[in-house]
């Protein structure tokens, strides 16, 4: 999987470089589909800008672009590669610094869950109270709800239920089942990838931030990435095809 991942980076980089170097505009990159009713365009945050040139609800933050200390380097993350593969133009808007002012409720809900879990593991805070604090920040925010029967209170009820169950789940399924002896909540955030091709002498870095890195009693390294989903059972086959987890594997190895 690691070799395939490197091959994918080498295949996409020549297409991505003109945008990264400021030689092309987002509109020079193709949409994933030309039909607004088809995924992902119908659900994309940039759909209005992409299809109609309507920039309402968007803001441009150019400071997010080229923030790396090494201006000659190329920094990529698993999320960037997934975004490019999903839709090149969506990726181009993101790289150009476009950000949506009205974000997805699901996205902010997931971030609130992640923050509450991190506060519990790293600081010993109560998950329920932490979630209520983080999700409470969005009580009066303009969020985009994908279903008409959902609102802030609906997600809050779901989050409280999940966080009340989390400590027992974490102790039983993570610490005990995986025989965890050491937890590392933070890692270095960049590592050079030794690609087989020379991209104009520019180093390429893979930027990763796994949610949790653990060591077992046997010294094995385990990467944990929290996912908020409506599925009741986890599909382990996802691990064998997940570019995100493959990127973490390369980063740690």
What does this structure look like?
It contains nine helices and ten strands. It has helices at 2-20, 47-52, 78-86, 88-96, 105-123, 127-136, 152-176, 237-241, 243-252, and strands at 58-60, 74-76, 98-100, 103-104, 143-144, 180-184, 191-192, 204-206, 212-216, 221-224. Helix 3 (78-86) runs antiparallel to helix 9 and helix 6 (127-136) packs antiparallel against helix 7. The radius of gyration is 20 Å and the shape is globular.
Secondary-structure map:
Blueprint: H1 2-20, H2 47-52, E1 58-60, E2 74-76, H3 78-86, H4 88-96, E3 98-100, E4 103-104, H5 105-123, H6 127-136, E5 143-144, H7 152-176, E6 180-184, E7 191-192, E8 204-206, E9 212-216, E10 221-224, H8 237-241, H9 243-252
Parallel strand pairs: 2-8, 4-5
Antiparallel strand pairs: 1-3, 6-9, 7-8, 9-10
Helix pairs in contact: 3-4, 3-9, 5-6, 5-7, 6-7
